[in-house]
Amino acid sequence: MSVHQKTFSVLMSVYFKETVSNLEQSILSIINQTLPPNEIVLVKDGPLTLELDNRINDFKIQYPNLFKIIELPENKGLGNALAIGLTHCTYDIVARMDTDDIAVNNRFEKQLNFLSKHPEIDVLGCNIEEFNSFPGDLKRFKINPQNHEALIEQIKLKSPFNHPSIVFKKNAILNAGNYDGSLPLFEDYSLFLRLMLTGAHFYNLQEYLLFFRVKDGVETIKRRSGVHYLRKELKFVNFAVKIGAFSKLDRLVYVTLKFPVRLLPPKVALFVYNTFLRKSSK
């Protein structure tokens, strides 16, 4: 398969709290790829600010054949927005991207090349480098295992992929039931569990092909801790048991190991994550 035959979509969702600067950096990193996509499906998850709308319109005018804009009348959350957006993707290969992250300029070329050589793979991720203000400022990296067996081995305690880094086969996602908007903050993890149950094959490139914006990390931890988060996480683990992805013992182990960390003060929790779950240099 030559580079010119590698057709694919990029799937994104934007909502009103995004900044114009972040969105612009993200989209430009897609457009300027060594292997750019054939289309960018951008879901407007509810009404946006005038500034965001104007910048999106500018991109649409500048690249009229590239953008497919899906406008939702109200904010439905990431899971619902992606589920709707996926049905509008033209191509069977779809790459995820968040509107505040920055893709390394050869990310898609590397991932599409790998998929063309390994057609048995349904979901392909990569490792990421976290950043605050600009790529490289934190020197902090998030790494997942490489092969399918190792990724499945960790799936009962943590998500096997960095969600914005994945490229996948559209049909595999639809076959697993698409994204689930009823599990906010766990729309990706729950999808990977359902994919596992359908027999989908996973792989994670051991290269850093995405810059993942975490700011100083505290705000991210606040969104993923506290009682409000525990309620959503408990709903997720009960869902995992219901569909047969977790046993009741798996649920007990998950809750015992992970729930106490959710109740730590955000700065303490951030220290735990950075010390034990991140690599500080390549």
Describe this protein's structure.
With 282 residues, the chain is α/β, with parallel strands linked by helices. The protein has a single domain, classed as Spore Coat Polysaccharide Biosynthesis Protein SpsA, Chain A (Alpha-Beta Complex), CATH 3.90.550. Helix content is 43%, strand content 18%. Strands 1, 2, 3, 4, 5, 6, 7, 8 and 9 form a 9-stranded mixed β-sheet that branches. The radius of gyration is 18 Å and the shape is globular. The protein starts with 8 loop residues before the first strand and ends in a 6-residue tail after the last helix. The mean pLDDT is 92.
Main traits of this protein?
282 residues, alpha/beta, Spore Coat Polysaccharide Biosynthesis Protein SpsA, Chain A, nine-stranded mixed β-sheet, 11 helices, 43% helix, 18% strand, globular
Question: How many whole angstroms does the radius of gyration measure?
Answer: 18 Å
Fraction of residues in β-strands:
15-25%
Helix content: 40-55%
SSE run: EHEHEHEEHEEHEHHEHHHH
Oligomer: single chain
Q: Which homologous superfamily in CATH is the superfamily?
A: Spore Coat Polysaccharide Biosynthesis Protein SpsA, Chain A
Distance between the termini: 32 Å
List the domain count as a whole number: 1
Instruction: Kindly report the average pLDDT value.
Output: 92
Please state the overall shape, judged from the principal axes of the Cα atoms.
globular
In CATH, the architecture is Alpha-Beta Complex
Could you name the CATH class?
Answer: Alpha Beta
Q: What fold name stands as the CATH topology? A: Spore Coat Polysaccharide Biosynthesis Protein SpsA, Chain A
**SS-based class:** alpha/beta
**What composes the largest sheet?**
9 strands, mixed
Low-confidence stretches: none
Secondary structure tally: strands: 9
